[in-house]
Specification:
- The chain is 50% helix and 3% strand.
- By secondary structure, the chain is an all-alpha fold.
- It folds into 4 domains: 1-61 and 198-299 and 415-486, no CATH class; 79-149 and 524-577, no CATH class; 311-407, no CATH class; 586-767, no CATH class.
- It has a two-stranded antiparallel sheet. Strands 3-4 form a two-stranded antiparallel ribbon. Strands 5-6 form a two-stranded antiparallel ribbon.
- Strand 3 (430-433) and strand 4 form a beta hairpin.
- Residues 476-738 form the DUF1553 domain.
Length: 768
């Protein structure tokens, strides 16, 4: 935790009587049931305010909203240390605090650091040897340029972006059903980053690709950003207006946090408690998406679609008679269950159920809905009833298996895009929802960015021509995209360069990467932040030049070793007198093990891969009674060794190794991952099937590549895993370990254990 700076002391909360608390909660609750009356507009709906509201000087002058300062790199005493302008900003603060910088890290540390940061993989022994042998003065810069051109760069940095989009291959919630074409958006992100698509275009296409580039399939797929979050598909008792509002809430909050770095979602039910974002501005931002629909349009050729439809009809024809047999088999059990449940009803309840729909009062509808729920027959009840009759149960399971086997012959559906589109030129009205309740409509609002940002730009209104509708779309999202990516909107540039800095230096210049508001942390180096944002715009919003600038700086090249005086006076290293050592993230741990074992499959793109789950995990999630395999592992074992980005991401089921190393569940946007330390991590690294399998493959690789003697094998193992040869003391310890293990378990097992020990080393798991 970082101490709060420049914040008033919080007063103790007054105690609230429980009964009053419950009554207050009920009064605020936005839940709406299916048979509640439809929402009605407020008696008067004042016209939308074209002009910007009045804000105080403090609100307008918040640092994050101001134009970029014309920051010149400061003069420093130790100019010989400086490699690029970034170093001047950092060194000036260190010199002001009378603190030293750290010496440059050794070359092995540098190549490991840069390779992991830019590609998410460890360097190969051959790459390390080539770098160590390269005596040219720009050898490191050449290394960085090569890493930025690697296709693995896009894989690595797509993972950071998809954390923000909270991408997954399933919808989440109770059903957590698959999104068959979600991966197309993931692949679009990888491709855009590898092509160094300018960030303003990268942003704009994800918000309004369908409006900005009509008819372009790639731009349509990019709008999958707005489809990446969880989505509840079970209707239940919630009315469509509530479901629709939940979708808009998800999109609005994500856009606000990811692109603007603001907790704008806090203004959904009331004015933001801290930032100058009234609820009206929340719904104005939401209004940009009022006409947007979550759709899955086909993008495959017509012939492919027709062939799939024909195959579907043929499969349906095969399944129909089997389903008929299932229905006939289950019919007597369903009738018995229905009779038993009906018998539990009173005469009055049965009479009420018999009442014609048109004659039911609203109160009776609620009662009837409850009665219908109580007598509804579930598939679990039918399954339990049939299971008691062993003959029928066996026949039922055999029929289900036949259906499943036929369904498995279904061809992969033709390509669709998970998209967010406007398919008409007009949008439904947007109203402020009092307390977030769809039944309590406040004033009508029109699309407009947050007023405080416009006010800080000294604008008194949002231009009427910012939104341009045509015969097919409202043009609202395109207007929002143009405003976000505008040269006079410095907040967007500040937010993205801070995210890049965070991933290279462990902590952002703003330590709260998705909260640039008044409750977020102020920037540790505000002039540097503005200079970097200005550089981004100067470079045409391209990200790779910013990466290069950061990782070739002297600041980045510093050693991460602790220096007593630095640690004592700057414990959190906020002045960056040394580099921050960090542990590999969850995907980095798995991918690094695959890389050093020689098993890594570099294939890119395509549907998410279902790799094996540990048996105990699968048994916890799926019951043994299931005839159908709910986790059909990819039959090609080479696919199991793809990079972690390409694993099938099910929101409710995470791979144990990834979960234990803090991979997010993708239920909400993740701007910064936690780095926890607990026993499950050690248990996974020592005992999981994943780790043991990689250790065995690593041992086989060592024996294959260094067949001569034990000394060569130990040396090769260290070079592959830790990117360096072992010291004499390490060689002696390795020999003693191998001799002991060999006597206990044999030659092959000894090398397996040695490989397992190496991938459990902190030196392997941490970036120096």
């Amino acid at each position: 935790m970082h101490p709060c700076r420049n914040r008033p002391a919080l007063k103790p909360r007054p105690r609230i009587h429980p009964a009053k608390f419950v009554l207050a909660w009920l009064a605020l609750s936005p839940l709406t049931m299916a048979d509640d009356p439809a929402p009605k507009a407020a008696p008067t709906t004042p016209p939308p305010l074209a002009r910007i509201e009045k804000f105080t000087a403090d609100q307008r002058d918040h640092w994050a909203y101001q134009p970029l300062a014309d920051s010149e790199p400061p003069d420093v005493k130790e100019a010989g240390w400086v490699r690029n302008p970034i170093d001047r900003f950092i060194l000036a603060d260190l010199e002001s605090a009378e603190l030293p910088h750290s010496p440059e890290a050794d070359r092995v540390a540098l190549i490991r650091r840069a390779t992991f940061d830019l590609t998410g993989l460890p360097p190969t022994p051959e790459a390390v040897a080539a770098f160590l042998a390269d005596a040219r003065p720009d050898a490191y810069e050449r290394l960085v340029d090569g890493l930025l051109q690697s296709p693995q760069y896009g894989v690595r940095w797509a993972q950071h972006w998809l954390d923000l989009a909270h991408y997954a291959d399933t919808n989440g919630f109770e059903l957590d059903s698959e999104r068959p074409d979600a991966w197309r958006y993931r692949d679009w992100v990888v491709g855009a980053l590898n092509a160094d698509m300018p960030y303003d275009r990268f942003l704009a296409l994800q918000i309004a690709g369908d409006e900005l580039e009509k008819g372009d399939t790639s731009a349509l797929i990019a709008t999958g950003f707005g489809r990446s979050g969880p989505r509840e598909l079970v209707g239940g008792n919630v009315i469509p207006a509530v479901k629709r509002q939940n979708e808009l809430t998800e999109i609005t909050g994500t856009v606000g946090s990811v692109f603007l770095g603001l907790t704008i979602g806090c203004a959904r039910c009331h004015d933001h408690k801290f930032d100058a974002i009234p609820a009206t501005d929340y719904y104005r931002l939401q209004s940009f998406f009022a006409a947007s629909e979550l759709v899955e349009p086909p993008i495959a050729p017509r012939a492919e679609i027709d062939a799939f439809d024909a195959a579907e009809k043929a499969i349906a024809a095969k399944i129909a008679p089997i389903r008929k047999q299932l229905g006939e088999l289950e019919a007597p059990y369903r009738k018995a269950l229905a009779d038993a449940k009906q018998a539990m009803l009173t005469a009055d309840e049965r009479a009420l159920l018999a009442t014609a729909e048109k004659d039911r009062t609203p109160q009776q509808k609620k009662i009837i809905q409850g009665l219908q729920n109580s007598i509804r027959i579930t598939w679990e009840e039918v399954a339990e009833a049939v299971a008691e009759a062993k003959v029928d149960f066996a026949r039922r399971e055999a029929l289900k298996l036949q259906v499943h086997q036929i369904e498995q012959t279904r061809p992969r559906p033709p390509a669709h895009a998970l998209a967010l589109v406007d398919d008409k030129p007009t949008a439904p009205d947007t109203f402020v929802l009092r307390r977030g309740d769809v039944k309590s409509l406040g004033p009508k609002v029109e699309p407009r960015p947050p007023g405080v940002i416009l006010a800080s730009q000294r604008k008194d209104a949002f231009p009427n021509d910012a939104i341009k509708a045509d015969e097919k779309t409202t043009g609202r999202r395109a207007g929002l995209a143009r405003w976000l990516a505008g040269a006079d909107n410095p907040l967007v540039a500040r937010v993205i360069v801070n995210r890049l800095w965070q991933h290279h230096f462990t902590r952002g210049i703003v330590a709260t990467p998705s909260d640039f508001g008044v409750r977020g942390e102020p920037p540790s180096h505000p002039e540097l932040l503005d200079w970097l944002a200005a550089q981004l715009i100067k470079e045409g919003w391209r990200l790779k030049p910013l990466h290069r600038l950061m990782v070739t700086s002297a600041v980045y090249r510093q050693s991460s070793k602790h220096v007593d005086r630095l640690t004592e006076l700057d414990e959190e290293n906020s002045l960056l007198g040394r580099m921050n050592r960090r542990r590999l993230d969850a995907e980095g741990v798995r991918d690094a093990m695959l890389a050093v074992s020689g098993e890594l499959n570099p294939k890119m793109g395509g549907p998410g891969v279902l790799a094996p789950l540990e048996k105990e995990v699968k048994d916890l999630i799926f019951t043994e009674a299931e005839v159908v395999d709910l986790w059909p592992v990819d039959p090609d074992p080479r696919e199991h060794h793809r990079r972690s980005l390409y694993l099938f991401k099910k929101r409710n089921v995470r791979y144990p190794l990834l979960e234990s190393f803090d991979a997010p569940d993708n239920q909400t946007a993740c701007p910064r991952r936690e780095t926890s330390t607990h026993a499950l991590q050690a248990l996974n690294l020592l005992n999981s099937e994943t780790t043991i399998g990689r250790a065995k493959a690593l041992a086989a690789r060592i024996l294959r590549e260094a067949p001569n003697d034990q000394a060569d094998r130990v040396k090769r193992a260290y070079e592959v895993v830790l990117c360096r040869p072992p010291s004499p003391a390490e060689t002696a310890r390795a020999d003693a370990f191998l001799d002991a293990q060999r006597q206990a378990d044999g030659e092959s097992a000894a090398w397996d254990d040695f490989a397992l020990a190496l991938v459990n080393c902190n030196e392997f798991l941490y970036v120096p």
